[in-house]
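Long-time lurker. I teach an intro course on protein structure, and each term I like to show students one example going from raw sequence to a predicted 3D structure in token notation. This year I'd like something fresh instead of my usual example. Would anyone be willing to generate the tokens for the chain below so I can use it in lecture? Attribution to the forum is fine with me.
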Amino acid sequence: MRPNWLLEQPEIDENDLPAIGEAVIVRCPNFQCLAYRGRTNQWWDAIDGEELTHVLEIIYRFCR
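-- Reply from a regular --
Happy to contribute to a lecture. Here you go:
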């Protein structure tokens, strides 16, 4: 049986996306991490630079 979070993956509203390069905390299926959006709208781990393929939601945005 699939876990509930796989069945109910919320879409991130396009109007709520952070600016390119802005650091945010995101939730992925098995972890949370500091991440940023690249120029091609792909998510990247801010620490090790790995591509994040399943970002479920933005948890925290830092003050500007």
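Some talking points for your students: The mean pLDDT is 85. The longest strand covers residues 32-37.
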